[in-house]
Each structure stands twice: as structure tokens, then as C-alpha cells.
Design goal:
Blueprint: E1 2-5, H1 19-29, H2 36-39, H3 41-47, H4 52-59, H5 64-87, H6 91-94, H7 97-107, H8 110-113, E2 147-148, H9 181-189, E3 190-191, E4 198-203, H10 205-217, E5 248-249, E6 264-265, E7 295-296, H11 305-308, H12 312-318, H13 378-401, H14 407-444, H15 460-464, E8 477-478, E9 494-495, H16 504-508, H17 512-521, E10 523-525, E11 533-534, H18 535-538, H19 552-562, H20 568-574, H21 583-589, H22 593-603, H23 611-617, H24 628-643, H25 657-665, H26 668-675, E12 680-681, E13 696-697, E14 728-735, E15 738-745, E16 749-752, E17 756-760, E18 763-764, E19 770-773, E20 789-794, E21 797-802, E22 807-808, E23 814-816, E24 822-824, H27 827-836, H28 838-842, E25 844-847, H29 870-883
Parallel strand pairs: 3-11
Antiparallel strand pairs: 1-25, 2-7, 4-10, 5-6, 8-9, 12-13, 14-15, 15-17, 16-19, 17-18, 20-21, 22-23, 23-24
Bound molecules: protoporphyrin IX containing FE.
Length: 884
């Protein structure tokens, strides 16, 4: 029997009684489309140059765990919508907690909604977990990676649940339509590359620090599906709004558009989060009416996730596990005057640009770091590289003075110091310059200790609007300087678009030093009301050739609507600022009245203004680089990140007084001195100065003395050195005056035996444990390989072996068929994908072999079809999920 699929509308083309037929059909039809990134791999191989959409997808491509979560969440959301469709429009009345629990479980969401297991050993107070979980003992998911961004105000969706503002053009806001975001960009935000006012106080590296630190705390993955869930249309090929496509409509065609003639730019909605709850089993309050939330793939904490990652899998890839010095992996092919570079990504061929003069076959791939966006621009890649070097420098020095430390101890101690330095540079040197002294005192103030009632989770408004203020401080030109801080004819100025995803320019054009000198000695761009974003960002974002472009300003505005951010005035009220009702009110906070004029022309009412734009055009506070609204949001967020972090560097018992004293001496300038060939820097890297008068020799830049970390080792007389274990390590940890050691295993292994050993007068109280290999192939909940491949367990990992006629694609999880047809390797994913492509399923038309007549549309369910028999509903769901 053959089945054909044809898309009709979701609401609602199937009667519950027909469900068993559909079930069968779905077995044949449920084929998951690969994520946009992998689909386009062949484009890279073919034409050699990646399109801007592909580059954005690459930089917004979540790593495996976020991917699993976002797909699970998409499945769950879609399943609930479909259940709603199948069983009636008043689902919340009839859908029991049990059924929701079942959907959560089968969609794959459940494991991510349960509270994490927090370790109860000595180390739990010594080092933060890589996921950020268990920082707060009462709320272990606060600030953890892959949880929902916090909402400080309820979301504003057009349907109250999920539909972005501006989705339905017939909906009016204060009597008018919202303007198209691209029109806002064209008329208010965009300026030419020449229209730049230089910041007279701050250097260009302050912009880089902003972006770098943002990538420590916020990463909102976008849907990994490249097609609409309902009818499988490619988002790149359609201007229709259908999840996850939310195309940016353009009034005037953009000549360099990827698909000529289309009047929109592609936009993928951010993935929804599984559930917003953070505690216990939450089905009591898991309602179908929970509005859509978005995920933060990173830990919220300022903890150098950029260097170490936010999940065990990423951390494992970044560490050099064979070194005794607790080092991070480095590039084995290229060095910068004997100094290290970041390793290349393992997702090859990566979409990064290649040097057109490179020798045959030579490829410089995108870098791999704790955050996946490290190659986005060369300045960001340089900052990541600096901190990789700083970790390895510290680790070697720590091992040197503490020969008895295990590799794990050295790694964790260096990681702890690097994390503390990120916090110090951000809160002491960066934030006061951005929000100004008054807002700093008002919203942040002096540190008074850890506050366990403070939720540190990064908020949606911070990452989707306020902290994107930095986009208005980006110079359109990249400058590189020689050792005398002079222009170098060998290294001409570049347009920003020439450094997007171009790690080769670091490696082949002089390494880090010339670029960092350019950033230190040139000013940042000043955010000026009628000079917001330059054409490099609005017309040439991620352009590597003339194969299309994106527009960062429109992406920001559309993202705000996608996330359901309430309008500008709601946020002003949230911050206790007066609501602006009229054009005249607006003129009181925006000095440039031409700008107010243009804003009112497009938005008609101040309450309609998209919050990113509203915050961006406010007059600066005194001594600040933001207006009152963004200063409030950034200030509140920073306070939450500081006071809600149990491992904050100033909190009691995190560092000794002597160590804190040393940490305070350190600075970004010192990090540059210690890890590059640069010998003269400004004392404060963010402060703009003239060379040579405002620069200091590195000998005069203070730094830490690591002796404060020296531990004098006296071997336990009775117990001796603890036994080392294969594929694991131990860390000394004193608790209640007793000497203890805690063991842990490498990723892919699990501990068998006692985790913690204490020295007693009879020796160690337990035998040392062993690390045993985890057999990933036995994971039934989320099998790593598809039924079409054979899962082979290997030591610490697994392999998916393809069986003809399929071969494994570059992602290592997807099967590539003869006809270049991709489908997912994971059986579970396969099942669940049925959840998200259910419209295909429910719109299946039955067609027998001899039946040539046009298939009939399945009967529609109407509101009157509401189905109240819970047992039946449950069994249908169970059956559906099991059999597909
Ligand atoms: C050349 C420099 C930069 C480039 C090319 C760049 C590009 C981008 C892009 C493409 C996005 C995703 C837009 C979307 O689809 O929603 C983004 C997000 C973001 N950017 Fe930038 N950006 C730069 C600098 C900065 C700076 C200086 C800051 C802050 C001071 C910043 C803060 C952010 C934030 C907070 C997000 C949201 C992150 C998330 O939640 O995923 N960016 N940026």
C-alpha cells in the first residue's frame, strides 16, 4: 500500500477515528529533514563559498545536547498543537496531567524538565559544574545551560501563546500595523560605512569584550529544521510565515539576495524550550497554555563558557586529556610565532572562508572553542585565542609550583582563575563604562555576598534586546597595526565583511598581534541616534561573496518579535521610567528630533516601538554608553549574575584573601602582555589612548603572583598517595579538617565504586574506584544511531556504521542515501519527528496500488468533534508514538 502526503491546513484535517490509518502512513512518511546546516554542507563542497544563511545557521547551530532539547521541545509543542487539533480546541480542559506527562516523555522533553542530580561530594563546593547546574542548591536549574531564558515580563504573542507580533498583518497595535522590520532598518537604523563617529573615550576592544562576554552567557539556538513543520517547505524558498520560518518581508528587493526575485529574507524562529518549570515533576503546572519560551544553550553565569563550553561533551572535546598539566587542546597545524591557536572544528568541511591564494588542498577551517560562534569575526576569534593561551599559561605555572597536583586539579584551578578574571574584567572594567556610574550604583552597587534568592538566569529581554546595544558600536573597518602601532602596508585595512568567518586572516596575516594593536589603539564606534548600524551589518552581514546577504538590524527586530518581547513602553514601566505617550514625550528622551520623526512615521505610537530600537535611540546617561532603559536591564542582569552565583569570585570561601588580592591586580592588558608578542599596552585596555604617551611597557602592568595558589604537599603518612585510575582522575579536597580525595571519570565513562575517599588512621576508608566504559548503544531513550546503522560501542564513545545503500553524512548521525536523501540516524528522533511533521501525517491521503483517482481529503474535525474519552486519547497517543 502506498501513501501520498499532501499538506492541507493543520486545523484540522483528520477525525480521531481515522487515526490508526494515519499511524500506519506515518511509519512511511515520518522522515525528518536534516537541519539546515547539514543540508547545506554539500553547497560548501560544491561551490566552495557558504551563503550568509548557512553561516548564520552554522553560528546558531546548537551543539548536540541543545539540539536534542530543541528538537524535543519542537516535538512537544507540535504534539500538543496537534492533540489540540485532534481532540478539541479546549485542550487544557481535557488533557490530563498524565497525558501531558506522556507527551513530554515520548517527545524527549521529560529528562530536561526533571531537576538535575546534584553531586553531594566535597567538590560540589569547590568547582562549578560545567553545565552551571546545582549552583543554587534549592533551584538547581537556575543559570544552567539548556534551560529557558528568564522572563521578567510576560511575553507578548499575538495569540497569547506563540505567534510573534507582526505575524498576522491584520492585527492592529494601537490602531495600526507594526512596520516591517526591514523598513525600520532602512529608514532609521542603517547608515553608510562613512558615517561613523569615533568614541573619544573607549577603544575598539571594548566592543569585542561586549560580544565575547555575551557569548559567555547567552546563546539562543534557532530551530534546526530548515523546513516548515506543516508542509515541509524550505524556509529559504518561501516567503510564507509558517513555523519555524518567519521570513523578513522586504519592500524593495535586495540585489544580492540569495534567491533572486523573492521579497523576503529567510529567518528561522528560535527553538522553544521544553518547559518553564524548574522544580520537581512539573505536570501540575504544565499547561497547554504555557506561552512559548526560548532556550539559553550556555550557562548564564560569567564563568568563561567561551573557553570551556557549557556541556560535558563540549568540554571533553576542548580538553587535552593526555597532558599532565590540565591543558586545553590547541591547533596542531599552525602556530603564531610559537604561540597557540584554537583547534579547528571537527564539523568539517566547515563553512569558513578560504584564502584565495592558498595552496591546492589547504583548508583553514573554523575554530573550535567553548562557544560555537568563535569564528564569526576575527577580533572575536582573537579574544577566544587569548583566553585559551591564558588557561594553558596558568595551568603550566600552577603545575610548576604544585608538582603533586593531578591534571584534573590543575585544570579545575586554572579554570577557576580564568572564570574569576572574566568576572573581574566585566564587572570592574567593562560594565561601569557601559551603564555609567549612577546606574551602576543604583542597579548593581557594592558586593555584599551571595544571595540564594536571586535567580541568575539570563533574561530574554537582556539577550534579545538590551545587550544587543553593542551592535551599534561596531566599526565597519578592521585595522591592523605594526609593532610601532603604525599602519602596515602589508596589512591593509579591511571591511568588516572581509573578516566574517575568516580564521585564515588570523593565521595567514600576521597572527593576533597586529589585530589586537588595531583594537587597542583605535576607537570604538560611538552609538549615535542617526548612525546606528553601518552597511557592513545591514547590507553585507556574513557576505563572503556576492551570494546574498543578511541584515543584523532586521534580525534583531524580528528576533524580538519571535521571542514575544513586549513593546518599548512596557519595559520603561518595568524599569520605573515614565511611559511615553506622545511624539512630544518621545522628544524628551531623544535629542535628535529627526529620528523621533522617523520613528513616529513608522510606529505611530511610542508603545508600538520594538524595544531594541527604543532602547538604542535613547539619549545616553551621563558617563554611559547606553540610555536609561538599557542601563536598567543590563544593570539588573549583571547584579543577578553576580549576586546569584554561589561561585562568584568575591563570595566567601571561593578564593583565599591572598588569592583575591592577587586576582584584583590582573587585567585584560596583562592577559595581552602574557599571551602575545605585544610589549606596550594601555593600563586599561578599554580606555582609548594615544601611542606612545598613553601606553605602558608590559613590565609596568601589574599581574597576579601565583604563589598564593601554592600548596605545600606533605604526603599522607598513613594513607600515601591515592591510587590513580585509568580514564579518570582525582582531586584533593579537604572537608571538616579531614583529607579526602574525590574521583571523577572522563566523558564516556562512569565511576564504579566509592567516589570519595577519606584518610583515616587505618588508611583510605575505601578502595579506589574504577572508570568503566559507558555503552552508549544501550541508550534506549535517546539511541545514538538509527536503525539503519549499526551502533558500535568504542572505549569512551561509539560509532554508527552505515549499511548500504546509505552512508553516514558529515554530522556523524545522519544517513545519506543514494539519492542524496538525508534522514536521521536516531530511531527516537525518527519517531519524534513524526510529532513535528504531524501535519504531514494527519494529511496523509490513502492511495492503493490500483487507485488512480485523486485521493480524498480526510474529514475535518470541527469544534463539535471534541473528544472526551481520555483512555482512548491516551491509547492513541501511546500507539502512535510506539508504532511510528
Ligand atoms: C562584529 C561584531 C558582531 C557581529 C557580526 C554580531 C552578529 C550577531 C548575530 C548574527 C547575532 C544573531 C542575530 C539573530 O539571529 O538573532 C547576534 C546576536 C547577539 N549579539 Fe552580536 N554581533 C557582534 C557584536 C556584538 C556585540 C559587540 C554585542 C554586545 C556588546 C553583541 C551582543 C549580541 C547578543 C546579546 C546577541 C544575542 C545572543 C543570543 O542570545 O544568542 N554582539 N550577533
Amino acid at each position: 500500500m502506498l501513501y501520498e502526503s499532501k499538506a492541507y491546513s493543520l486545523r484540522c484535517s483528520v477525525h480521531p477515528n481515522s487515526f490508526h490509518l494515519i499511524l500506519k502512513a506515518s511509519q512511511k512518511l515520518c522522515v525528518k529533514k536534516p537541519p539546515v546546516f547539514y543540508l547545506n554542507y554539500r553547497n560548501i563542497q560544491g561551490k566552495g563559498i557558504a551563503t550568509p544563511t548557512l553561516l548564520l545557521a552554522f553560528s546558531k547551530f546548537p551543539e548536540q545536547e541543545s539540539q536534542d532539547i530543541s528538537q524535543a521541545a519542537e516535538r512537544m509543542e507540535m504534539s500538543i498543537q496537534v492533540a489540540n487539533c485532534l481532540f478539541g480546541f479546549f485542550l487544557s480542559d481535557i488533557l490530563s496531567a498524565d497525558l501531558l506527562a506522556m507527551i513530554a516523555n515520548i517527545s524527549g522533553c521529560l529528562p530536561y524538565m526533571l531537576p538535575p542530580k546534584c553531586p553531594n561530594n566535597c567538590l560540589a563546593n569547590k568547582y562549578r559544574l560545567i553545565t552551571g547546574a546545582c549552583n543554587n542548591r534549592e533551584h538547581p536549574r537556575w543559570g544552567a545551560s539548556n534551560t529557558a531564558l528568564a522572563r521578567w515580563l510576560p511575553p507578548a504573542y499575538e495569540d497569547g501563546l506563540s505567534q510573534p507580533r507582526g505575524w498576522d498583518p491584520s492585527i492592529r497595535y494601537n490602531g495600526v500595523q507594526l512596520p516591517l522590520v526591514r523598513e525600520v532598518t532602512r529608514k532609521i537604523i542603517h547608515v553608510s560605512n562613512e558615517a561613523v563617529t569615533e568614541d573619544n573615550l573607549y577603544s575598539d576592544i571594548i566592543m569585542v569584550w561586549g560580544q565575547y562576554i555575551d557569548h559567555d552567557i547567552a546563546f539562543t539556538p534557532q530551530s534546526t529544521s530548515r523546513t516548515t513543520f506543516l508542509n515541509g517547505m524550505e524556509c529559504q524558498m518561501t516567503c510564507e510565515k509558517q513555523n519555524p520560518c518567519f521570513p523578513i518581508k522586504v519592500r524593495f528587493l535586495i540585489p544580492s539576495r540569495e534567491i533572486p526575485g523573492m521579497d523576503c529574507l529567510p529567518f528561522y524562529r528560535s527553538s522553544p524550550a521544553c518547559s518553564t518549570g524548574d522544580h520537581g515533576i512539573l505536570f501540575g503546572n504544565l499547561s497547554t497554555l504555557n506561552p512559548r519560551q526560548q532556550i539559553n544553550g550556555l550557562t548564564s553565569f560569567l564563568d568563561a563558557s567561551t573557553v570551556y563550553g557549557s556541556t560535558p561533551a563540549t568540554e571533553n572535546k576542548l580538553r587535552n586529556l593526555t597532558s599532565k598539566e590540565g591543558l586545553l587542546r590547541v591547533n596542531v597545524k599552525y602556530y603564531d610565532n610559537h604561540r597557540e591557536y584554537l583547534p579547528f572544528t571537527d564539523r568539517i568541511p566547515s563553512p569558513c572562508a578560504q584564502d584565495s591564494n592558498s595552496s591546492e588542498g589547504e583548508r583553514i577551517e573554523c575554530f573550535m572553542a567553548g562557544d560555537s560562534r568563535s569564528s564569526e569575526v576575527t577580533s572575536l576569534a582573537a579574544m577566544h585565542t587569548l583566553w585559551l593561551r591564558e588557561h594553558n599559561r596558568l595551568a603550566r605555572a600552577l603545575k610548576n609550583i604544585n608538582g603533586h597536583w593531578s591534571a584534573e586539579t590543575v585544570y579545575q584551578e586554572a579554570r577557576k582563575i580564568v572564570g574569576a578574571l572574566h568576572q573581574i574584567i566585566t564587572l570592574r572594567d567593562y560594565i561601569p563604562k557601559i551603564i555609567g556610574p549612577d546606574a551602576f550604583n543604583l542597579y548593581i552597587g557594592l558586593y555584599t555576598g551571595y544571595d540564594p534568592t536571586m535567580n541568575p538566569t539570563v533574561s530574554n529581554i537582556f539577550s534579545t534586546a538590551a545587550f544587543r546595544f553593542g551592535h551599534a558600536t561596531i566599526q565597519p573597518i578592521v585595522r591592523r597595526l605594526n609593532a610601532q602601532y603604525l599602519d602596515d602596508p602589508e596589512l591593509p585595512n579591511l571591511h568588516l565583511h572581509e573578516v566574517f568567518f575568516s580564521p585564515w586572516r588570523l593565521i595567514k596575516e600576521g597572527g593576533l598581534d597586529p589585530l589586537l594593536r588595531g583594537l587597542l589603539a583605535h576607537s570604538a564606534k560611538l552609538q549615535v541616534q542617526d548612525q546606528l548600524l553601518n552597511e557592513e551589518l545591514t547590507e553585507k552581514l556574513f557576505v563572503l561573496s556576492n551570494n546574498g546577504s543578511l541584515d543584523l538590524a532586521s534580525l534583531n527586530l524580528q528576533r524580538g518579535r519571535d521571542h514575544g518581547l513586549p513593546g518599548y513602553n512596557d519595559w520603561r514601566e518595568f524599569c520605573g521610567l515614565p511611559k511615553l505617550e506622545t511624539h512630544t514625550d518621545l522628544n524628551t528622551i531623544i535629542t535628535n528630533h529627526n529620528v523621533t520623526e522617523k520613528i513616529m512615521e513608522l510606529y505611530h505610537n511610542p508603545s508600538n516601538i520594538d524595544v531594541w530600537l527604543g532602547g538604542l535611540v535613547e539619549d545616553f546617561l551621563p558617563g554611559a554608553r547606553t540610555g536609561p532603559l538599557f542601563a536598567c536591564i543590563i544593570g539588573k542582569q549583571m547584579k543577578a549574575l553576580r549576586d546569584g552565583d554561589r561561585f562568584w569570585w568575591e563570595n566567601d570561601n571561593v578564593f583565599t584573601e591572598a588569592q583575591k588580592h592577587e586576582l584584583k591586580k590582573h587585567s585584560l592588558s596583562r592577559v595581552i602582555c602574557d599571551n602575545t608578542g605585544i610589549s606596550e599596552v594601555p593600563a586599561d585596555a578599554f580606555q582609548l589612548g594615544k601611542f606612545p604617551q598613553d601606553f605602558k611597557h608590559c613590565d609596568n602592568i601589574p599581574g597576579m603572583n601565583l604563589e598564593a595558589w601554592q600548596e605545600f604537599y606533605q604526603e599522607e603518612e598513613i594513607c600515601g598517595t591515592p591510587k590513580s585510575v585509568e580514564n579518570g582522575d582525582f582531586v584533593y579536597c579537604s572537608e571538616f579538617g579531614k583529607s579526602t580525595v574525590t574521583y571523577s571519570c572522563q566523558y564516556g565513562f562512569r565511576l564504579q565504586g566509592a567516589e570519595q575517599l577519606t584518610c583515616t588512621n587505618k588508611g583510605w576508608n575505601f578502595e579506589a574506584p574504577v572508570c568503566i566504559d559507558i555503552n552508549e548503544c544501550e541508550n534506549e531513550i535517546n539511541p545514538p544511531c538509527s536503525p539503519s546503522t549499526k551502533c558500535i560501542n568504542t572505549k569512551g564513545s561509539y560509532k554508527c556504521l552505515h549499511t548500504d545503500p546509505y552512508k553516514l553524512s558529515e554530522d556523524g548521525r545522519t544517513c545519506l542515501g543514494n539519492a542524496h536523501f538525508l534522514f536521521p540516524v536516531s530511531a527516537n528522533t525518527l519517531v519524534m519527528t513524526c510529532g513535528i511533521t504531524l501535519s504531514l501525517i494527519i494529511n496523509c491521503r490513502k492511495k492503493t496500488e490500483n487507485d488512480n483517482s485523486p485521493a480524498k481529503k480526510l474529514p475535518s474535525c470541527k469544534q463539535t468533534d471534541v473528544f472526551h474519552d481520555m483512555t482512548y486519547i491516551q491509547s492513541i497517543f501511546q500507539l502512535w508514538f510506539r508504532t511510528t
